[in-house]
Amino acid sequence: MANDFPRFLTIPEINPFFVTFKVQHKLFFLKTFITYVSALFICIVLGSGISSCKKQLGFSKSNLAFSVDTLVFDTVFTTIGSTTQHFKIYNKENRNVMIEEIELAGGENSPFRINVDGVSGDKHSNLELEAKDSLFVFVEVTLKVNGQVLPMVIEDSIRFRTNGVDQYVRLAVWGQDAYFHYEDFNEGTWPNDKPHVIYNRAYVNTDKTLNIQPNTKIYLHKNSMLFVYRGTLNVAGTASQPVIFQGDRLEQFYKDVAGQWYGIYFHEALPSTINYAIIKNGTAGLHLFGKNSASPLPTVTLTNTKIYNAASYGIFLYARPDLKAENCVIAKSGVHALFILEGATYNLNHCDLLGYGGSVQTPAVGIRNYYKTDGVTTISGVNGTITNTVIYGNQSSEIAFDTVNPNNDPVLINLSFRNCLIKLETPSTDPVFSNVIWNSDPLFSNIPENKFTFAPSSPLNGNASTAFPTTNGMDIDEIVRSTSSPDIGAYELN
Question: Measured between alpha carbons, how far is 225 from 148 in angstroms, rounded to an integer?
Fold first, then answer.
């Protein structure tokens, strides 16, 4: 095995997102004073009289302009504060304007909070806005639990009074009640009539089983995880009603922001299943640590699942867990789609293990059978088979090995890649690779939109082996696979 794998690979900490707003306060008094003295001097010199100059220095009788007429917040979960939004107030006149009142119509009972030019409060008075100038109004919202299943729309407004005239900017938020989990222990079946929101950790404890139904939506707060500790998790989505795991920020800005939550963590878990799930924008989509000695079955059986845009790893196998995966797409991870550290057993069939993500220049698949900590190196076996799978991306090589075998143990490292399409800068003649198509563009439909179907001219078409059929005989979209010439990867050409 080539020892070209990066030497330092750890899960990076999630850095919180900070939005810092800096509002520049004008020195109104000083500027007005200077303007007044200058004008007074001109008046005296020109003999035009002080009274006419006072008239020029008076406030504008016009009204304000605004950057928006309605400020809309995307879906916000009850009890979870929104991100901060803002709009601008403009004075487009050549003279200063006095804003007599700025008031949040709902007052202290409103779920909205406002900050005007750096000052918080639901009411502000006598703010002077200079000619051709503007100031910011910042708005946040936190909704109370309402016990409703359906989403709700909450509205309010901000009133601006200038020269005795009222103007309004409307506020609107789409709110959603949810089931909330914070350091709680879970078993049985989660209802799917409302979303589930996880703070910090939701546990499935020893010998307990949590079942998640089709069409369940699970949102995780910053750094949070679903933690399966020696228990069982069964995620039972369907093609039309997948189970969705993602961050709890639903604003458009966060649609493709990686690292919003940690992942689904299996610690020596009992046999668990995930079928038809979408797992996106975490740090490690699935993290499997160790194997439970009570069962010979795989730690996790993963089928028909998409894992996108993980900040570090789509799937992280550490300290000898056991994974079986079919018809899965793992793509656009910041570091690796699949990462094995200190050994694992795995069997992947008809999967897409793809790069295309992140700025770190690392391959889609990384395999390391040891780990060094506190000066001690632990070496473990790797027993892995990958069949009928595409391993591709933007790098010149999308697989890297870093394996050690100091005693030349013949069973320590047992790897097999059969009937796959693989991108590797120098195609390998090692017998671990069999019937591999090297470095041929799979011609995916639309990589930016995560559409990994392919054209009929793709080398994926018809080049999988019938010796490794999927369990249900179908692809990830429930298209029946050919029994004579199936396609490589998670998709079958329709």
Answer: 25
Domain locations in the chain?
Answer: 60-175, 178-454
What confidence tens digit (pLDDT) does each residue in 342-377 have?
A: 999 999 999 999 999 876 679 999 999 999 999 999
Q: What does the mean pLDDT of the chain come to?
A: 88
In sequence order, the β-bridge partners of residue 227 are 203, 265
60-175 fold: Immunoglobulin-like (2.60.40)
Cβ count near 430 (within 10 Å)? 12
Q: Which of 307, 318, 315, 304 is nearest to 273 (CA)?
A: 304
- Separation CA 349–CA 402 (nearest Å): 23
The residue type of 354 is: L
- Which amino acid is it at 408? N
By C-alpha distance, which of 283, 285, 276, 335 is closest to 307? 285
Copy the structure tokens of residue 219. Answer: 């949102």
* pTM for the predicted model, two decimal places: 0.78
Q: Contact at 8 Å (CB) between 112 and 156?
A: yes
Tokens of 50: 């002080």
What single DSSP character describes residue 350? S
